[in-house]
Amino acid sequence: MIGWRSQDAMRGARPPAVAGTFYPDDAWTLRRMVDDYLAAGRDEVEPRGTLKAVIAPHAGYLYSGPVAGSAFAAFGDPQRIARVVVIGPSHHVAFRGLALPPADRFTTPFGSVPIDLEAAGELRQLPQVTVDALPHAREHALEVELPFLQRLIGDFELVPLVVGRASPAEVAQVLDRLWGGDETRFVISSDLSHFLDYDTARRVDAATARTIRNLGGPLDPSQACGAAAINGFTPLARQRGLEVSALDLRNSGDTAGGRDRVVGYGAFSFNPADGG
Predict the structure, then answer these.
(1) What is the mean pLDDT of residues 98-124?
(2) Residue of 270, 88, 90, 96 whose CA lies nearest to 167
(3) 149 CA to centre of own chain
(4) How far apart are CA 49 and CA 1, in angstroms?
(5) Do β-strands 13-14 and 98-100 pair in parallel, antiparallel, or remain unpaired?
(6) String of b and e for 66-105 (b: at least 16 CB within 10 Å)?
(7) What SS3 class is residue 191?
(8) Is CATH 3.40.830.10 what the domain over 2-272 is classified as, yes or no?
(9) Integer Rg of the chain from CA
(10) Residue 86 in 3-state DSSP?
(11) Where are the beta strands (DSSP E) in 132-175?
């Protein structure tokens, strides 16, 4: 579709790319699956204070959905939330900087999520931010988080950012522009280690989790495919007095796969250290 490929074309919808593969394309089946993951997460996670951000995984729901449920269960009261920034890695397209889509909404089987066009316009003033359809066209890292947010919040505006080659400072500058107040939340989309055996993955992911909890780093992509986004968010979290809780740490060998080659998944929340 020419209009979708041209960043100067009329805005439209970014359609689902992985509905029917990473998650069900039937709204009823998807609703039941997401609600079950959230209910299980709430049994394990008690929201604490005003959550600012989560790290959530982005694999197929059969593999990472239980861990994502733990991340999103930490959101607490959704009534304050008007905007969610979802940021994650580019799996298919190499590019420089961070990319917004030339669209005014994302769609899933649950319907449309409008993009915060005012915020997107402000971000376009930064040299590291581009508007480019290609990094978004096939990317699953942002899309798979949306059904969870739709079930949790209902109506909200979205700022969708795919990260290519970008320094922590460049990512931090973008996220700082979007920080806002209680109305704004961040979802950092990232899996952890890839294709290690089960026991090795557990050791590697435990070390990565310690780094995240301590607001340390930087991480590299072998530890977390969303390392660039995490590395950009971490200094802001330190500056603004956030602390990290590890909510869940598993891998595909625990959920729906074999144990010879696994992918790691972690759920983490970022909250004010004073509990506010």
Answers:
(1) 97
(2) 96
(3) 10
(4) 45
(5) unpaired
(6) bbbbbbbbbbbeeeebbbbbbbbbbeebebebbbbbbbbb
(7) coil
(8) yes
(9) 17
(10) strand
(11) 157-163
Distance CA 57, CA 252 (A): 11
Q: For residue 147, what are its two tokens?
A: 């059904």
**Side chain identity at 202, as an amino acid letter?**
R
Q: For residues 48 and 219, what is the distance between their CA atoms, to the nearest angstrom?
A: 26
Sheet of strand 111-114: strand arrangement: 13-14, 105-108, 111-114
Q: Respond yes or no on whether the N-terminal peptide bond of residue 218 is cis (omega within 30° of 0).
A: yes
3-state secondary structure of 258: coil
How big is the CA angle at 86 (ends 83 and 88), to the nearest 5 degrees?
170
Residue 261 tokens read as: 């080659």
Number of helices (H), then strands (E), belonging to the chain: the values are 10, 12
Give the pLDDT confidence of 198-235 residue by residue, as tens digits.
999 999 999 999 999 999 989 999 999 999 999 999 99
Indicate the residue type of 263.
Answer: V
In tens, the pLDDT along 17-60 reads 999 999 999 999 999 999 999 999 999 988 777 899 999 999 99
Q: Of 112, 104, 64, 117, which is closest to residue 88 (Cα–Cα)?
A: 64
d(C-alpha 254, C-alpha 251), whole Å = 5
Domain boundaries, the chain: 2-272
Q: Which residues are 189's β-sheet partners?
A: 56
pLDDT reading at 3 higher than 50:
no
Rounded CA-CA distance 99/112 in Å is 20
Checking if the pLDDT of 250 tops 70, the result is: yes
- Name the residue type at position 34: V
